[in-house]
Design brief:
membrane, germination, 369 residues, transmembrane helix, 71% helix, mainly alpha
Length: 369
């Protein structure tokens, strides 16, 4: 029996788990960050970033498809040897730990700025870690099922941002490419962080029921993320003037403020409350990756020791209350690390595996002769 049989996930869960990991912190700040670099042409950078992400995503799927029954660690050790493979896995674990730390502190800053300014950081972290532990201890199927539930639960959030667009001015988007291609291309590096999460295909692929659909699934996940980013970015560009949008830290939340109902005045508070679920679907897969790969690295099945990371986050938040600048620094570190770990490594590793396989085949053929 396949060792992943009892933990298999459907194609829909695979798609939404990757999409949920991508849709997280960047959705709040992306329009302003792009406007500072490429102006209102930043939406073109999103499309280019999606194309680059899709290429690397397909490299990951192609790598995993070479040995569908292998986990990421098994694939690394198969081609790199025991010690080099484990060293690379340690780098990936550190990368994922940085990712979940960044997402957690971004969540804290947003919550304390928009809704709970007097609530201690450690208390908020403790409240976040309890459900996180329940989900990741349930295994990959629970993680993927949770992402599926959150997707349908928050499906209306982007649609709410369409309401203020009755007062928008689409002329702000014109002329297209007003500053040429260079600002647009330079802004692509800003979109790199926004599409992070596709690398979780390394984690979810072995558990996918229909592995032949993995490539299609990850392309669909990237396109879903692209559509959400385009809708929110274009909406912010059309509602705020080109100079005004750069003055906001979280333009997506500011766009919600004009929305009012007779029974609800501060719509942004309600929006942030639901947005916590999106933050969780970004952070939980990275947290599960860390705990799961640590267990595999130490060859201890269902090892509980990595779960000590959760209370450790609570302890750290007791002594460290991050500012917006602190979070920005963490995001910079995450971004620079992702260039090498997430974007460069799968492509280089694919070339290495292809060359290694070709060399080994020729060696066997020479011996046969």
């Amino acid at each position: 029996m396949n060792k992943f049989m009892k933990k298999e996930i459907t194609l829909l869960q695979y798609i939404l788990a990757i999409n949920g990991t991508q849709i997280g912190t960047s959705i709040l700040t992306l329009p302003a960050e792009l406007a500072k670099v490429a102006g209102t042409d930043g939406w073109i950078s999103i499309m280019i970033g999606c194309a680059l992400t899709t290429v690397v995503s397909l490299c990951i799927v192609h790598l995993m498809a070479k040995h569908p029954g292998d986990t990421m660690l098994e694939l690394l050790t198969r081609y790199m040897g025991k010690w080099v493979g484990k060293a690379v896995m340690v780098i990936w674990i550190l990368y994922s730990l940085l990712a979940v730390t960044t997402i957690l502190f971004v969540t804290l800053v947003v919550l304390q700025t928009w809704g709970l300014p007097s609530t201690p950081s450690y208390l908020l972290v403790a409240l976040i870690m309890v459900p996180a532990y329940i989900i990741i201890s349930g295994g990959v199927r629970v993680v993927a099922s949770y992402a599926e539930i959150v997707f349908f639960l928050t499906l209306l959030l982007p649609l709410l941002l369409l309401l203020p667009l009755k007062d928008s001015h689409w002329v702000y988007l014109l002329p297209i490419l007003k500053e040429g291609w260079m600002p647009v291309l330079y802004a692509v590096k800003t979109t790199v962080l926004a599409f992070l999460g596709f690398e979780m295909a390394f984690l979810f692929y072995p558990y996918l029921q229909n592995k032949k659909a993995a490539a299609k699934g990850i392309v669909i996940a990237n396109i879903l993320t692209l559509l959400v980013y385009l809708q929110i970015t274009l909406g912010c560009f059309a509602y705020f003037s080109p100079d005004e949008i750069t003055q906001f830290l979280w333009p997506a939340l500011t766009l919600v403020k004009p929305i009012q109902f007779s029974f609800l005045e501060r719509m942004e508070i309600f929006y942030v409350s639901l947005y916590i679920f999106l933050f969780s679907t970004s952070g939980i897969p990275y947290l599960f990756f860390v705990t799961d790969q640590l267990s595999q690295l130490c060859n201890k099945k269902d090892w509980k020791l990595p779960y000590l990371l959760l209370p450790l986050f609570v302890v750290v938040s007791f002594f460290f209350r991050p500012s917006y600048n602190d979070v920005g620094l963490l995001k910079k570190w995450w971004e620079w690390m992702c260039y090498f770990v997430v974007y460069a490594f799968p492509v280089v590793f694919l070339f290495y595996v292809t060359g290694y396989t070709h060399w080994k085949r020729r060696k066997i053929d020479d011996k046969a002769d």
